[in-house]
Write a structure and sequence with these properties.
It is a single chain. With 541 residues, this protein is of the alpha/beta class. Helices cover 31% and strands 17% of the residues. The chain starts with 7 loop residues before the first strand and ends in a 5-residue tail after the last strand. The protein binds flavin-adenine dinucleotide and NADP nicotinamide-adenine-dinucleotide phosphate.
C-alpha cells in the first residue's frame, strides 16, 4: 500500500535512485523531517528501469557503490568486475532494506508541480496522486538520464508490433525468441543490448546512424580474495577516488600521444585493449584536447574492428566517422563487434539512407527499402539533465518558471542551486561533474554537502538560501570555459543536448575534476556559504 506523504516537511526528496536514497538516509540521521516521493512503483531509478538484456555498468562494481556506511561495505560482496543491472538493483535493495528506507518513500507518486511561496519560504508541492506538501527544502534527485527520448519518426507510435525503449524496459521482460527485431541506436544502450538480442531473435536489424567507439569490457568474476582485501582498506581506497579528477583510480598519462613513437603507442593501446575498460581515455594527456592525438587511439580501434568483423563493408560501416575518439561516451562492449559475424544480424546505415517513416510493421527508409519487424527497440537515449526537471512545473521567485530561466541552457552555482529558486537543490545534475565522473563519488559528495547545508540552515535560523546571480554567472562561465577547449564540443552527443530537437547546444557538465570541485564546494561552505543569500526568520507553523 502507498505510504501517504506528510503534508509538512523540512525536506522533500524527489526520486528513489542512488541520489535520493542516500539523501533520505542522511537527513534522517540529521534528525530532519524528510520524505521521498518516487514516480515508479519501486526503487532503483536507472537500475530499475533499464532492464534491457545486456544492461551493465561501465564503472567497476567496487567503485560504483556507496562508501558512507562501513557495515554496508563489509556485508555486501560484488560478484563481477562490471556488474549487470540485476546485481546493481539487488545492491540498491539491500541498502534500502538495511537502512529501512522504504518506510519513508511514497511510490507511484510523481511530482507534477512545485511553486515557491515567498511569504512563508516554503515549496508548495503537488503530486499526481493529489498530495499537497509544504516543504521548506526540496532535493531534486530526479536523475540525469531518467527521461527517455523517443525518436521523432513519422508513424512510430502506430508501429503494429511491439515498440520498446531501453530506458523504460517492461518489468516482466520481453520474449524475443523467434522474432524479427529492429534496434535503432548504437550508443551505450544499443551496443550493450544488440549482442543479447541477437542471441534470442530470429533476425536482428541494427539501424545505425552514427557508429560509436567501443572497446572490450573484459568483464569477469571477481576474485573473492581481492574483494575481501579491498573491503579491509576500503575507506583509504575510496579517499583516493574522492580527490581524483574522474572520481576513479585511473592513471592519467602525462605525455602527449604526439611525442610517443608508433611502437610505444601500439604497446600502450594493446595493453588497454587486453585489460579492457575505459582507462585508455586517459592514456595520454592530450586525448581530451587534441584531435590529432585522439585520432591515434581512434585509428587503433578501427583497426581492431576491421580485424574482428569478417565482412569488410560491415566493418567499414562500424568504424566511427565524423567526430574524434572520446567526444562521445566511450562504450564498453561484450561481443558487440563479433555479433556482426552472425548470419542473423544485419547492419543498416541510416545516415546514408535515413529512416523516412514507420509504416505498419515496417521501418521504411528514404530509398523505399522496408524492414519488416515484430519488435522495434529504440535505444535512442534520454532528454538528459534538464529533461526530468522541466517535466515538473517548477515556479520560483516572482512566478519565474525553470525552463524560462534556463532557456539558453542550465545556469547554476556549483550545479547545486539556481538563482530565483531558493531552497531547491539538484543532485549530480548540470553544472557539476555528474555523469562525467564516477557518479557514485559525485552523488555522495553532493548529498553530504547539500544535507550539511540544510542542517546548518535549520540550526542557525536560516529560512531561505538563494543563489546570487553574480556567483551563478561566474560559475556558468567557468563550466563553459573548462569545456570549451575539449573535444567534447565536437561530438553530436547528448552531453551537448544535440539529441533532443530544439534543445540549446550547451555543454553543461563541469570538467574541472571531481577533487578540485570538492575543494571548491568545501571552500564555499567554509566561507559561510558565500554565493548564497541567506535569510534568517521565524519559522511559521
Ligand atoms: P536515477 O537513478 O535516474 O533516479 C532518479 C529517480 O527519480 C527515478 O527513479 C525517477 O523515476 C525519479 N523521478 C524523476 N522525476 C520524478 C518526479 N517528477 N516525481 C517523482 N519521481 C521522479 N553512471 C556511471 O557512473 N556509471 C555507469 O556505468 C552508468 N551506467 C548507466 C547506465 C544506464 C542505462 C543509464 C541510463 C545511466 C547510467 N549511468 C551510469 C548514469 C546514472 O544516471 C547514474 O550512475 C545514477 O544511477 C543516477 O542515480 P540518481 O539517483 O541520481 O538518478
Ligand atoms: P545515446 O548515447 O544518446 O545514444 C542514442 C543512439 O540513438 C545514438 O546512436 C543515436 O545516433 C541514435 N538515435 C537517436 N535518435 C535517432 C534517430 N531518430 N534515428 C536513428 N538513430 C537515432 O543513448 P544511450 O545509448 O541510451 O546512452 C546514454 C547514456 O546513458 C550513455 O552515454 C551513458 O552515460 C549512459 N549509459 C551507460 C551505460 C553503461 O555502459 N553503463 C549503458 C547505457 C547507458 P546519433 O549518435 O547519430 O545521434
Amino acid at each position: 500500500m502507498r505510504v501517504t506523504p506528510p503534508t509538512e516537511l523540512d525536506v522533500l526528496v524527489v526520486g528513489a535512485g542512488f541520489s535520493g536514497l542516500y539523501s533520505l538516509h542522511r537527513l534522517r540521521t540529521l534528525g530532519r523531517s524528510v520524505h521521498l516521493v518516487e514516480a515508479d512503483d519501486d526503487l532503483g531509478g536507472v537500475w530499475y528501469r533499464n532492464r534491457y538484456p545486456g544492461a551493465r555498468c561501465d564503472i567497476e562494481s567496487v567503485d560504483y557503490c556507496y562508501s558512507f556506511d562501513d557495515s554496508i561495505v563489509r556485508e555486501w560482496t560484488w560478484a563481477e568486475r562490471y556488474p549487470a543491472q540485476p546485481e546493481i538493483l539487488r545492491y540498491i535493495n539491500f541498502v534500502a532494506d538495511r537502512l529501512d528506507l522504504r518506510s519513508g518513500i511514497s511510490f507511484d507518486t510523481r511530482v507534477d508541480a512545485m511553486h515557491w511561496d515567498a511569504e512563508d519560504s516554503v515549496w508548495l508541492v503537488a503530486t499526481d496522486c493529489g498530495d499537497r506538501i509544504r516543504a521548506r527544502h526540496v532535493i531534486m534527485a530526479s536523475g540525469q538520464l531518467s527521461k527517455p527520448q523517443f525518436p521523432d519518426i513519422e508513424g512510430i507510435k502506430d508501429f503494429s508490433g511491439e515498440l520498446l525503449h531501453t530506458g523504460d524496459w517492461p518489468r516482466d521482460g520481453v520474449e524475443l525468441t523467434g522474432k524479427r527485431v529492429g534496434v535503432i541506436g548504437t550508443g551505450s544502450s544499443g551496443v550493450q543490448t544488440i549482442p543479447q538480442v541477437a542471441k534470442q531473435a530470429a533476425h536482428t536489424t541494427v539501424l545505425q546512424r552514427t557508429a560509436h567507439y567501443a572497446i572490450p569490457a573484459r568483464n569477469h568474476d571477481l576474485d573473492p580474495a581481492y574483494v575481501e582485501d579491498l573491503k579491509s582498506r576500503f575507506q583509504d581506497y575510496r579517499e583516493i577516488a574522492r580527490h581524483h579528477p574522474g572520481g576513479t583510480h585511473r592513471r592519467i598519462g602525462t605525455e602527449s600521444a604526439l611525442d610517443v613513437d608508433p611502437g610505444a603507442l601500439e604497446e600502450t593501446f594493446r595493453g588497454h585493449w587486453e585489460k579492457g575498460g575505459p582507462d585508455i581515455l586517459a592514456a595520454y594527456r592530450d586525448f581530451r584536447t587534441d584531435e590529432r592525438a585522439a585520432e591515434k587511439a581512434g585509428d587503433f580501434v578501427k583497426e581492431r574492428i576491421r580485424e574482428i568483423v569478417k565482412d569488410p563493408e560491415t566493418a567499414e560501416k562500424l568504424c566511427p566517422k565524423g567526430y574524434p575518439f572520446g567526444a562521445k561516451r566511450l562504450v564498453l562492449e561484450i561481443d558487440y563487434y563479433t555479433t556482426f559475424n552472425r548470419d542473423n544480424v544485419s547492419l543498416v546505415d541510416v545516415k546514408a539512407d535515413p529512416i523516412d517513416r514507420v509504416d505498419g510493421s515496417a521501418v521504411v527508409l528514404e530509398s523505399g527499402a522496408r524492414h519488416e519487424l515484430d519488435v522495434l527497440i529504440t535505444a535512442t537515449g534520454f532528454d538528459a539533465l534538464t529533461g526530468p526537471l522541466f517535466a515538473i512545473d517548477i515556479v520560483g521567485v516572482d512566478g519565474q518558471r525553470l525552463p524560462d530561466a534556463w532557456k539558453d541552457g542550465p545556469r547554476t552555482f556549483l550545479g547545486i542551486g539556481t538563482h530565483g529558486f531558493p531552497n531547491l537543490y539538484v543532485v549530480a545534475g548540470a553544472g557539476s561533474p555528474s555523469v562525467l565522473s564516477n557518479v557514485l563519488i559525485s552523488i555522495e559528495q553532493h548529498v553530504e554537502w547539500i544535507t550539511d547545508f540544510i542542517d546548518h540552515q535549520f540550526r542557525t535560523g536560516i529560512i531561505s538560501a538563494e543563489v546570487d546571480e553574480d556567483a551563478q554567472d561566474r560559475w556558468t562561465q567557468e563550466v563553459y570555459d573548462v569545456a570549451a577547449p575539449t573535444l567534447f564540443m565536437k561530438g553530436n552527443s547528448w552531453y551537448l543536448g544535440a539529441n533532443v530537437p530544439g534543445k540549446p547546444r550547451v555543454f553543461s557538465l563541469y570538467l574541472g575534476g571531481v577533487g578540485h570541485y570538492r575543494d571548491i564546494c568545501d571552500k564555499v561552505a567554509a566561507d559561510d556559504y558565500a554565493g548564497f543569500t541567506l535569510t534568517r526568520g521565524e519559522i511559521k507553523s
